[in-house]
Write a structure and sequence with these properties.
alpha+beta, five-stranded mixed beta barrel, 3 helices, 18% helix, globular, GGCT-like_sf
């Protein structure tokens, strides 16, 4: 499926793309129309080498930001984030998979958003030997 054939969903970011983190300004500044706090149910957070991985897990919750791209910047932002996350559709070497999941806003409403979750091989390794980030919030990991 080409990028243009996919739905234009907002992005749920939970690690280095959040405001105040190292990749926020590099990738999101000038390309977003809005951002607001959000929570992803059904996932937990693991430490990675300087960045986190969300792993789908019933009962868990991950905190982050729900970010909407400016319409004219959407395609460029999507391609940039796919590159940053080492994601290519169907590639078994992916570190992350981009999936559409419901994200809950602060007011309790839900919206479907793109989320980069750990790819299956990474998920297996993290579940076996990874360090869980208690509470699911990258900002409060230390």
């Amino acid at each position: 499926m080409s990028l243009s054939a996919e739905p234009r969903l907002p992005f749920f970011v939970y690690g280095t793309l959040r405001p105040g983190e190292r990749n926020h300004d590099l990738f999101l500044r000038g390309r977003t129309a809005s951002g607001e706090p959000g929570r992803l149910a059904g996932a937990v957070l693991y430490e990675g080498p300087g960045y986190p991985y969300a792993v789908e897990e019933p009962g868990g919750t991950v905190s982050g930001e729900l970010v909407a791209a400016r319409p004219e910047a959407y395609e460029e932002l999507l391609a940039s984030l796919d590159r940053l996350e080492d994601y290519a559709p169907g590639d078994p070497r992916n570190l992350y998979e981009r999936v559409a999941r419901p994200v809950t806003r602060a007011d309790g409403t839900s919206v479907r958003a793109w989320v980069y979750v750990a790819a299956p091989t990474v998920t297996a390794r993290l579940r076996a030997t990874g360090k869980l980030i208690e509470g699911g919030d990258w900002h409060t990991r230390h």
